[in-house]
Amino acid sequence: MTAMKPALDLLIDANVVLVLAFCLWRMTHAMLGRSALRHDYSRQLLLLKLVLLITIISPLIALVGLTIGQALAPKTPLTISDIAVAAYLRGEISIPAVEFEALLNTRDRWIDAALESQSVWMAATKVAFALVLTFFALRMAWSLWRVKRVLDGSFLWRRTRSVDIRVSDTVGIPFAARGIFRRHVVLPSALLTRPRELKVVLAHEFEHVRSGDVEWEIAIELIRPLLFWNPAFFLWKRSFDQLRELSCDQKVIVARRISPHEYARCLLDFCERRLSGRWPRIMNVALVRSDAWSARRTFEARIRAMYHAPSGGGRAWMCGTVAILAVGVSLAAASVRKPGDWSHDRLMLSTIVNLERLEAINRGN
Amino acid sequence: MRKKKTANLLTEVELEFMNELWTLGEGSVRDVLGALPDDRNLAYTSGATILRILDEKGFVESRKEGKTLVYRPLLEKDKYQTRSLQNLARTLFDDTPATLVARLVDTADLTPTDLEDIRALVERRLQDDSDETGS
After folding, report:
1. How distant is the Cα of B5 from the closest Cα of chain A, in angstroms?
2. Strand partners, A187
3. Which of A168, A169, B76, B44 lies closest to B36 in space, CA to CA?
4. DSSP structural state of residue A176
5. Are B5 and A153 a contacting pair at CB < 8 A?
6. Which of A29, A168, A309, B76 is deepest in the core (most CB within 10 A)?
């Protein structure tokens, strides 16, 4: 059980940072809506990807930041708990020291209780957690197996340096996926006889491949079993999916000079077909999705977005936003970290707690 | 040699190509594309891919004549018709071909001559069966 504690600690930290990072992203996104980047979905997606990467490496940034911070200003509190202890010692929080310390150690107590408790409720919670985790892991394996089966049963049409374009009788919707070594664009065989749609679809799926969207999809789905209980994860994923498609549509329309009308008609056509088929929702990037509850809204957003070209400029906005988000997420990660050792303030608090206990014992005698 | 991928039934596009090959007997990609209706407007590479897929599925075989691949059906049209009907009876008519025939007789726009032909076919088949049982 002791060996599990650091892992559980890390998981909780990751979840807290994810929530804080998502709140920061939503605020940034709202600001972007009023900036030059309002209709520049590819830059918005780039920003979201950067925030995700910063969130992932934020514990490392926080560690480096804390080490540097402690070296530069040894007595300045940097984590939330250290700031609270300093405030307590200054007399800004007026509760008994024993209670304050118990409050500070709440998370540790809960983790210990979760790991050591023998109660039926705790056992049931652990079983439920394990079951849901297994469900998501199995769903991922099943989707991978379905994608592999389609790839195995498909026919190679063309081959570029890193991408195989394959034709399949069993799929109704084109999608991009990847194996261990190669990436694949899979097209329904009937599409070969519709050259205008084929051009749109190939441009769309190749844009996904170029942008690394398949790899992002796989990476996000791989961490889902660990974060399934966090609503921020689902909100992240929804924002990511939507921006990914808006960005891809916009790039294809601008770069290939396809009319938005023709593009929208192609999407609508595939949406109708998608409704009648069953297809794994994860581990691939399909042209359209109709399985999500928000599919209709996403589709409407895609159609509206096609008629907006990205405005040039906005580089200063991008750099500024990335810097602010990096600092914000790192501060969030640093603030939730547990203090590494006994600081002067902590020793003071511990002394007060011991004095309070001694006084209580003396009063009892 | 590339491994054949087995498939029982043709897709809509493949059937269109097979129909042309059954009519032509054999032909190259250009022959088949030329036989399709004018409004089909298929790219050469798409036609070549469809024929290559038919080859991989074992519905046709190909041989090289100079630089051109010539395709020949391996499956006869009537055999495919039988296979297709068997599949239809199994999947849509609960594996009872009689229901399929009943539906055809009830709803298809059949002339009295067509019905007479069907009766003659059924009677001939019954006669053949009773001869086999008798002998």
Report:
1. 7
2. A167
3. B44
4. E
5. yes
6. A168
Give the B window 16-55 contacts with A, CB below 8 Å. 40-43, 45-46, 49-50, 52-53
Residue-wise burial string across A189-226, b where 16 or more C-beta atoms lie within 10 A, e elsewhere:
bbbbbbeebbebbbbbbbbbbebebbebbbebbeebbe
- Distance from the Cα of residue A146 to its chain's centroid: 24
H-only helix segments in A153-192: none
Q: What is the ipTM of this complex?
A: 0.70
pLDDT, tens digit, for every residue of B102-126?
A: 888 887 778 888 888 888 988 888 8
Helices (H) and strands (E) in chain A, counts: 13, 5
The reported pTM is: 0.75
The C-alpha atoms of residue A145 and residue A163 are separated, in whole angstroms, by 20
What amino acid occupies position A17?
V
The answer to whether A169 contacts chain B (CB < 8 Å) is yes
Look up tokens 């009295």; give the residue. Answer: B112
